[in-house]
Every structure is written in C-alpha cells, then in structure tokens.
Specification:
This protein has 138 residues and is of the alpha/beta class. It has one domain: Rossmann fold (3-Layer(aba) Sandwich). The chain contains six helices and five strands, in the order βααβααβααββ. The chain has a five-stranded parallel beta sheet. The chain starts with 9 loop residues before the first strand and ends with a strand.
Length: 138
C-alpha cells in the first residue's frame, strides 16, 4: 500500500484481521499497511460489527480471554473500533440489498464509503461490489 497518497482512512475487514492474527501469508503485508498508516497518521478502522465477529471467532478457536486480549492489542496498535450508528447501518442495509454480501462485510464496505477510505481485504466476497468502494487486495 502506498500511504504516500494520504488516504483518508484504512479500513480492515474480519478476513484481514484474522489473517494478520493467524500469521497467514498476508500477515506481514497487513503489518506493513498498519505501520505505514500509523506513520502517516492515517486512521485505521474496523466496525464494531467486525470486532464482534473477530471476537467470536477467536473465542471459539482459543478462549474468550484470548479473544478479548487480541482485540485490546489491536486497539493498542491504533486500530479504531467504529460504532455502528444508524447512518452506517442504513448504508450497510443498502449494500446488503444490492450486493447480497454478509452483513459484517456490508458494514465494512459502508464504513469505507463513509470515511472515503480504502478497504484492505483478501475476501473474495467483496468482488461483488462493482463501484463506490476503494479496495486494495491482499
């Protein structure tokens, strides 16, 4: 990612965060994106819906304590959890009706639109969105 273009925000989805936490092949790239964004003072965000999904996956895989610890560590890195207010929920609903994505993916895409940011993902589901969302694939 070239943060030199001064993105308004970097938006991470559940797939990206779990890939990072699991140490998958894209983890180093995600770490670099986070580091570059922090260095350039570009906000890094996930939605509260994604945070809940990440917590649930980690709690099922490992433990509730580890899930909570992992989310706290993400916030300590500078990743902001954005609440799902009515405007975000409405935009997510519009996207869900148009593109038939999972609800958490719709919230992620809606946040990307609202923040005029770039969505960092490797989730093929986002290929259904044909316009309006800037996506950088990992």
């Amino acid at each position: 990612m070239q943060v030199a273009r001064k993105r308004r925000a970097v938006i991470l989805d559940t797939h990206t965060i779990l890939s990072y936490l699991d140490g998958e092949s894209s983890a180093e790239l995600v770490a670099n994106i986070i580091s570059d964004a922090i260095e350039e003072d570009v906000p890094i965000c996930i939605t509260a819906v994604n945070a809940a999904e990440i917590w649930a996956v980690l709690a099922q895989r490992v433990s509730e304590n580890d899930a909570t610890r992992s989310l706290n560590e993400l916030q300590q890195l500078g990743i902001q959890v954005v609440e799902a207010d009515w405007n975000l929920a409405l935009e997510a609903g519009v996207l869900k009706s148009r593109y038939k994505l999972s609800l958490s993916s719709c919230f992620t895409a809606a946040l990307t639109i609202q923040k005029r940011g770039v969505l960092i993902t490797g989730d093929e589901e986002f290929k259904r969105i044909d316009k309006g969302v800037s996506i950088e694939w990992i």
